[in-house]
Amino acid sequence: HAHTSTSAATMSSTSPPGGKIEQVKLDIKTWPLPKDPPLGMPALFLGRDTKTYGEAGTGWVEYVPEYECGGIYGKTAPDYQCPFTLAHHDNNLDLNKRDAGSDTPNKEDRKLHVMIASYRDPLCPITLFNLFTKAAYPELLHVNVLMQNDPEVDDHCLKVYCKMIQEHKDNAKVGGNHEPLKTHSLRNSFDLDAQCPHADQVYIHEIHAKDAKGPTFARGMLSADMDQQYHDGKLSPQDYCMSTDSHMDFTVHWDKDMVEMWHAAENEYAVLSSYVNDVERMADVNGRKEVPHLCMITYTSNVRTHATKCARALPRPKLTNAVWGAGLSFSKCHADLKAQVDPHTPHIFDGEEFNRAARFFTHGYDIYTPNASHVYHDYHRSQANPVMHTWGKSFSREEKIYSEYRLSTMIDLAGGEKDKDKSMAMKRSKYGLGDRRTLDQLIDFTGFGLRERKITIDGKNRCGNTRWVPFREHTKGVNYIPRFDVEENPLDPPDETGIWHEGQGKVDEISGAGAVQNKILEENMVTVKKGVERAIETADVMRAEKEKETFEGQVQNSDSEEEEEESSEEEYETHIMGFNDVPDHVAKKIAAAVQNSRSNSILHPPSQGVSSKVSNLRSSGNTQISISHHGFGHLPLPIKLGVIVLTLGLCLTFLLNMSSNSGRKVLRKRRKLKRNV
């Protein structure tokens, strides 16, 4: 397609070839059950559920790639729009030439980083063996394995891989049972003379099996390793990244074919993902070129990716309704760096995949069904091994509850955070949602009624042809990776093209400039607030009370408002510095934030002692933070009136009580005189 764009911040806008032409609806063929599409026809199976989707939502439908850019009018659509490509927006660079952020000249020379989570899996070494020996460019593979083993019982993944290589070489020399070692490197880079070829390209992150907390927790640790490699300069956003399981097999030249297939999607934000076929289907036995296609979910304790549909004879990767599977995920590394797996979700099985799909989608990424199978899953041997299903031994109910709550909050599912400010803070954190698309757009695109736990919002089956959802690219480009502080709060202000920035404008319309000012200050103080919270949680209560008394005594003895102000600042900073759990850089930011907040003060709280001032920093941002001026004279008018009314009420109560006591005394004296008479 011929892409045109005015700037990197605008939406992708692709005009149909030939300029303005008459709109013509696409002729999309369908085959109601029990009919079958002819052999070789690109087709998508919608299913058999007439109760949910009606007759129109079942059977087969023709796959038409033009629909993804133009909807029912295809290339004749007046709003014809296609996804972004690197050549489209990044200095007009061609995909096959040097890319921004990459130190390699073409797509065949970029590194391919593979993330594998393994739990006591004896098939892990075989996966490494297949990965390297069948690769076209094994020298470009860099494998991260999170190995969760019992060292006294389980084999080491890398050591056994090396042993397998050596056994094949030795047996080939003496005419043993093993066949000669077959490698498929196109550059003869597989060094057969090496004791363990490519072992230096495998990083093993080893933890004990007893500390395992489920697949999401494991993949979260892999994401952290990948993030560290990025910051160490060992991984580029323009490299390729793939995550898969530890019991896999691959076709010959699988790496080259996966790269070519990713580029066939013609979308820099493409993520190829599916539940892959079983190893028994490595040979296309029926000649139909069938691949698994994810497009359905179900509700359990969270949202679970549900089964697969069938897609046949696809000419290119097929855009899906944002349903992602952890068994295979292939993309440029900037996708994995932006939508990392949340490590704060231990003991999660259901919920991981759709939550990450939501984060990919809101970051601007699109999930595609691979149109060919190059990665296969050994379902039988892996599922038949009872040891691999014992990771729940370290189960913690409290951690599981928090994980469910966290995942539910991200997608507005029942059971998540109800407070809007807290929910928004979580969604904007490092493992939250992106700022390119909204959650409402996700619900409309997928058709899933997340907030009501509905399978469909409109009765339409979205396993068929789907249309791409445009968005505005980040002003810093596709290779920009958002920055976060140690508490996982955003360091950069909202991008002017993002939904968070637009949200601030809406807040301004509803609540006035003051509310927006509060939001801005809150963004600048995220590190401060988190540091104070940690300090409060770990501080010695007795010491805090003692400092509070000291502070209040100084306030009472101050001779002027200016002395009171200086004293409060000094004691406040001393109080914060006294907490051992607050790092120096956080303490400095607290002091700076306190100083900066003075000129922006909206509401000045009365003098309440140190503890209440600390708690003010924990407020939600609906009130401006300030500790600069104290005393009755600086209170807002409504609070002054309240204090006056309360004081008058107390005085009146006191007078009435005194009058009542005097009356009772008079009555007692009269009774006493009568008895005496």
Mind sketching the topology for me?
Blueprint: E1 30-31, E2 43-47, H1 50-53, E3 59-62, H2 67-70, H3 86-89, E4 112-119, H4 124-133, E5 141-149, H5 157-174, E6 202-208, H6 215-231, E7 240-244, E8 248-250, H7 254-264, E9 270-273, E10 290-293, E11 297-299, E12 303-305, E13 309-312, E14 318-319, E15 328-332, H8 333-338, H9 352-362, E16 366-369, E17 375-377, H10 379-383, H11 397-410, H12 420-427, H13 439-446, H14 499-511, H15 513-524, H16 526-538, H17 541-557, H18 561-577, H19 584-597, H20 610-616, H21 637-676
Parallel strand pairs: 4-5, 4-7, 5-6, 9-16
Antiparallel strand pairs: 1-3, 2-3, 2-13, 7-15, 8-17, 9-15, 10-13, 11-12, 14-16
Helix pairs in contact: 4-5, 14-15, 16-19, 17-18, 18-19
Query: Could you give the distance between the termini?
Result: 118 Å
Strand order of the largest sheet: 6-5-4-7-15-9-16-14
Oligomeric state of the chains?
Answer: single chain
Strand content: 5-15%
User: Could you tell me the radius of gyration in angstroms?
Assistant: 32 Å
SSE-based structural type: alpha+beta
Can you count the helices?
A: 21
Helix content: 25-40%
Principal-axis shape: globular
Q: Would you report the number of β strands?
A: 17
Mean pLDDT: 77
Largest sheet: 8 strands, mixed
